[in-house]
Amino acid sequence: MTSLIIGCGNLGKIILERFSKKKNKIFLLEKNIKVCKEIKKKFSNVECFSDPKKVNWIKVNYIMICVKPNDSKKVFSEIKNHCNKQHVILSFIAGLEIKTISKWIVSKNSILRMMPNIFISSNNSSTAVYAKNLNTNIKNKIEKDFSEFGDIIWMKKEQKIDFFTAMFGGAPAYFFYILNCFNKIIKKNGFTEKQSLSAIKLLLKGVLNNINKENFKFSDSIQKVASKGGTTEEGLKVFSKRNNLFTLFERAILSAENKSKRISKKLK
Ligand SMILES: NC(=O)c1ccc[n+]([C@@H]2O[C@H](COP(=O)([O-])OP(=O)(O)OC[C@H]3O[C@@H](n4cnc5c(N)ncnc54)[C@H](OP(=O)(O)O)[C@@H]3O)[C@@H](O)[C@H]2O)c1
Questions:
Q1: Does domain 171-264 have CATH number 3.40.50.150?
Q2: Would you tell me which CATH number, out of the four given (3.40.50.720, 3.40.50.1820, 3.40.630.30, 3.40.109.30), belongs to the domain 2-156?
Q3: How far apart are CA 209 and CA 213, in angstroms?
Q4: From atom 47 of ligand 1, which residue's Cα is the shortest distance away?
Q5: Whose C-alpha lies nearest to ligand 1, atom 25?
Q6: How many CA within 13 A on the CB side of residue 28?
Q7: Per-residue pLDDT tens for 81-97?
Q8: 72: buried, middle or exposed (CB in 10 Å: 19+, 13-18, 0-12)?
Q9: Which helix (H) or strand (E) holds 125?
Q10: Is any ligand 1 atom within 6 A of the Cβ of residue 93?
Q11: How many angstroms separate the alpha carbon of residue 165 from the centre of ligand 1?
């Protein structure tokens, strides 16, 4: 059986790379002919199509949909006549609810929502998965087939995907944004990009090393650096004054979560 990926942008391309490593045949449906040509050159086990009619649908098991929310209705209208009950539909689309997909698709497919982040490329994504009344065989198969993404976390309620999208779908970008702030400050203080990057890399390695220690606690690790009356304590006072930084992060995540909810309403 062959997996079909629809949309080869930021996420679709990473999923394609991940699956192509297994050496299985993969179908890709991508409307951009230039992208199709590049993919054909790079991956010998990927068959790329820009017209859904050309896909050999009988061979397909998973249909992984990786297009923007605004393109989703069009994609489902293009594929609905080719879908049969055997196809397991995996939607990676932020905000698009299962009941909306069910409305758009004619056959009674198993439909799952998956929310990973770009770290699936290195097996380091926490991926939220939600499905209604999923058959145990399919559930077990999903756990096995997608174990290379990182951790699979099954959601009991579909609404929780909105939070997960905002928190972990976006988290790589938030982290890079924060580190870029550090980078700018370091360079403003006279260090080169190279010096800044290697210092930031060591810092991250140190953080990860600490978190991996037994009985790790965030508060203990903060206390170890912020000795009483010292310089770090002064820096931390700015972050924690009126809960400044915490409130800002909380507002950012909530704002992203609300956007996911607005997408759901718009697509209904
Ligand atoms: N990026 C992430 O980190 C991430 C993480 C979790 C979930 N997601 C979700 O994944 C989805 C895709 O995000 P993305 O960042 O990968 O977007 P993207 O870079 O815009 O990729 C979407 C791709 O789908 C193509 N496409 C559009 N309509 C199509 C159609 N009818 N048939 C075939 N291909 C079509 C687009 O082509 P054109 O560019 O020519 O329109 C583009 O190449 C979104 O719904 C997002 O919520 C993304």
A1: no
A2: 3.40.50.720
A3: 7
A4: 94
A5: 7
A6: 30
A7: 999 989 999 999 999 99
A8: buried
A9: strand 125-131
A10: yes
A11: 15
Residue among 46, 91, 99, 98 at smallest CA distance from 71: 91
CB burial readout 35-65, b (16+ within 10 A) else e: bbeebeeebeebbbbeebeebebeebebbbb
Rounded to 10 deg, the angle between the 193-211 and 171-188 helix axes is 130
pLDDT at 231: 97
Closest ligand 1 atom, CA of 74?
31
pLDDT digit string, tens, across residues 206-229? 999 999 999 999 999 999 999 999
Question: Is the separation of the CB atoms in 102 and 124 below 8 Å?
Answer: no
pTM, entire model = 0.94
Instruction: Please give the structure tokens belonging to residue 30.
Output: 């991508």
Question: Angle at the Cα of 107 (from 105 to 112), degrees rounded to 5?
Answer: 65
Check if 17 has its Cβ closer than 6 Å to any atom of ligand 1: no
pLDDT of residue 193: 98
* Ligand 1 proximity of 67 Cβ (cutoff 6 Å): yes
Nearest CA to ligand 1 atom 24: 7
Q: For CATH 1.10.3730.10, list the domain ranges present in the chain.
A: 171-264
Cite the residue boundaries of each domain of the chain with CATH code 3.40.50.720. Answer: 2-156
User: Atom 15 (ligand 1): residue with closest C-alpha?
Assistant: 10
Give the ranges where 124-212 is alpha helix by DSSP (H): 136-145, 160-164, 171-188, 193-211
To test the pocket of ligand 1, the residue of 50, 71, 115, 130 to mutate (highest count of ligand atoms within 8 Å of its CB) is 71
